[in-house]
Amino acid sequence: MSATAASTGTRPRFRRVRGWAGTLGLAPFTAYVGLFLALPTVLAITTGLLDVNGHLTWHNFSALADPVVLRTFWASIWLSLLTAAIGALVGALVCYALLGIASTRPVRVVVDAAASVLAQFGGVMLAFVFIATMGRNSIINQWLTGLGINIYASGMWLYDLPGLILPYIYFQIPLMVITFMPAMAGLKPQWAEANAVLGGSRWTFWRRIGLPVLAPSFFASYLLLFANSFSAFATAAALASQGSQIVPLQIRAALTSETVLGRSNLAGALAAGMIVVMVLVMTGYAAVQRRAGRWRS
Amino acid sequence: MTTEVRQAAAVALKGVVKDFGTTRVLHGLNLTIAPGEFVSLLGPSGCGKTTALRLIAGLEQLTDGVIELGGVDVSGTPTNKRDIGMVFQAYSLFPHLTALQNTLFGLQMRKTPAAEARQRAAEALELVGLADLGDRYPYSLSGGQQQRVALARALVTSPRVLLLDEPLSALDAQVRLQLRLQIRRIQQTLGITTVFVTHDQEEALAISDRVAVMNAGHIEQIGTPEELYLTPATPVVAAFVGMSSLVRAVIRGDQAWAWDIPLPVLGPPTTGDCEVFVRPEHVHVAGAGDPRFEAVVETSTFLGSMRRTLFRTDDDQLITMQHDVSETFTIGTRVALTIAPVPVAVRRVKTRCATVRASD
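The joint structure predicted for all components is written out below.
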């Protein structure tokens, strides 16, 4: 028996699926991605490039430079930057607090479960929660009014852009807990012990080891939170009764109205604009994740 | 060579007690280690050896007792002020720092001038044979290389004591053998006081000046490897250090009688039924006039420089004989055996006879 035959013969491995079977197995996924990701992207861009009569035009895309559209994009971006920042910081602190609790302890189980549920708790329900708790006729507001405090003295901000900050943070923090906890749990006790044995203090550990090791995972999670907030629609749609304060609402307006800003296919152009932002963010996310994964292995 | 020990410190544990919650894991441990000595803490898992080491490092808090380094009570001194070096079981290198940066860490904590620190770190890496891999990150190093970096990192600050917490247990057999020789060579060159924790008796015997055999939170016996092997103080030591067959015997006078073969006895005198620990190298084929017992060959194992053969005696006991490779036995053959009159460890009979690691 030749050496080659011996070496391949002794090492059992999964038979690789080739040709027909492999293609067939991938087909459902390919079809799904094609229909619900690639096709809409192409449609968003092409419809943005066409006018009502189907003629090629830059008119819609030039609307991306329109002050109203720019303002909306800016609103979406700062809302996402802010809520992602608060969510990331608070979420990271929650993870830090959970670090000392064994994953089988009730507190940890409850927090883990709550985080998983609440991270997906956007939309009409969340809007209702905030209206019921903090709205004009809510118990808290009436109680505060009784104390002579009027939180709506400068206007009904809950139903406007600033009103989105609290509900967004509500689902951003749990999402941070879910995505960042594995990285936090990956901090090995030996690193803290090695730091101490080598003469380092607690502060040294966090400054020289803990934070640098966690940084890539933290930024990856931050970008994920940004994307989560940037693409969120339902909460805003339920809360904001008037106007189109963020891009997804403006897309809705563009889809349901005949014309917005005198343009017919603005929705496609707006969606394409969002896609550009998301592609940038997710590219950054992938790059940072690769870095984080390298250390963890 | 700047990676040298400033002053090798003595280590003393005096009446050391450690509780975890309501469980007592160390029951008043006493241990004195001379400056420059290499002492192993050997025992099965859960015997308290790692806890003892972590107490010396200050990574656990004493429940009671005193720990001294260099004659000074350090019981209240935090880990980062104890001036020690430690190598952990695995994965203790900082993942975001290169081998060189890892090695520099302790020197930076001590505010060593940068130029001197770089020189000393480079020398420490050279000492462990990794001079060329200083700019590699831990994830691109093998397990053995990582542990050598960890050793360089622990030694570079010239600590007073080196603590090794099963540093070889996660490595392949061959690397393990290589690295333990390297650790011993470096330790002897530097003359650094070293405490080594292991559950591998062969490792402990091969590397140490003295070995402390631990069991259930106390030290059974401390002595040189030869002392432990030849004169085990307790049945636990006899069973744990080296290989033995456990054989039924009766004490009459000051001797143990197994199949009418008289054997000198180690340890305090006992009477009546007992079990004795017979080393495989003390079992021989009976010559003319030797006291003897008959047994049938069960298995025979070729071990390169020697052969071990397992016999079943007529009274259904198992006994292992170690012998020359040239001597071969066919399975099922009846052979008359004898035992050399070398002192044996004795254990009082608790349950029915079992053979301790009769086959290897």
